[in-house]
Amino acid sequence: MASASAGEDVLPLPSERYDFSMTKGMYLLNQGQYSESEEMFHAALADRHNDAKAIYYLGMVEGRQEKYAHAAARFLYAASLKPKWEATARYQAGLALYKQGAFEEARQQFLLVTQMTPHSYLGASADRFLIEPRKNKSPGRWGFRWMTGYSYDDNVALEPSDGPFLSENQDSRLTFLFNGDYQWGMNRPSGRIGYSFFKSLQKELDAFDIESHQPHLLLLHKGEVVSGRFDYNYLYMTAGGAPYLRSHTVRPMASFLSVWGWTPNCFYQFQSKDFRDSSTFQSGASRDGINNMAGLSAEWVGGGKKFKTEASYEVENTRLDEWDYRGYRVATRASVQLPAAIQGGIGVDFFHRNYPFKHPLLSLQQGREDRLYTATARLSKSLFQGVDISAEIVHLRNNSNISLFENRRNISSLNLTGRF
User: Fold this and answer.
1) CB 63 within 8 Å of CB 78
2) Domain that holds residue 98
3) What would you measure as the largest C-alpha separation in the chain, in angstroms?
4) Residue 230 Cα distances to 217, 266, 296, angstroms
5) 0.85 exceeded by the pTM?
6) 359 contacts 368 by C-beta, under 8 angstroms
7) Which CATH number covers residue 249?
8) What would the pLDDT profile of 342-376 be if each residue is shown by its tens digit?
């Protein structure tokens, strides 16, 4: 058998091809030849599947090409593959999200970076984005968001558990939302104050047209181990053009240092409710009262994926005893980056309510017991800078020991959202 002569070409080993592809890819990236650089990093991935370094530099290329959604997903994936690179990759993900206009998601990444490397240059740079997250976006740090959508509901209601206020009719509606806020934060704590307006117009069931006005305040303080958040919301809501609800909500929350990528939180919520009776929705005022809730949650972000789980317990005391309840809630949500820059999300929510006092109008010896289930599926995609389109399906079901409160609903919606 003939042996290979000294003049014959010798194929490079996979490791040599990888080194060559990475070196040339970084050179081309620095020269501004992004398409050619992208090809070299893909070639490197062919030799080393799921290589964090190649994925990271693909994110750098896509960031230079202003493909910010793709870049953020690459960086988060690289962070999940190589813990040594996690802080750097998350910082780059925060920059990509920031440039995309996703300020809250960017803030979450910068916060994680400051927790991982609080005394490094990287941590200090991330901290500046937390203090002034929109410095380069708007000199006054004003932010505005709008949403318009169309939805179809096969059992229109004001609230999922309101048996007496169910229409038992299907209908479609148009929805409009506008939110404006001003953010400050030259020094800690930082904060945001704003106002939201929401309007829904039913095609046929005018009595279920909703209009709400919601001023809100948010205060934030970031610490090395514990960070704090304080929310206040005032809600004024009308149904069918008549006053329906006024409420005040206060929600303090503490977030702790991440453990194995999970960020734990604990929270408390106080809410006062003032209902109004109308010709369509009678006996609403009997539900005036106070709600107290406390709970724990945990959130994990990495590899273009996001998971959140939450458990809470609440007590509501109302004007009439039959509306008093004790309940616990368990909820899980997940989102993932899909092909074609589509963001997918699902959620499951279980809420158990126990009303210890029997209803005076119902011939039952025991109190009311509700089990509310909610399942959500959502797809969204950025159309262009600052504008997203999303489709959502929601299934709600209330299993109650009182048939009046048994119900099922299915809601499908298509929404267009913009930020500026």
Assistant:
1) no
2) 14-131
3) 100
4) 8, 12, 15
5) no
6) yes
7) 2.40.160.40
8) 888 999 999 999 988 876 656 556 678 899 999 99
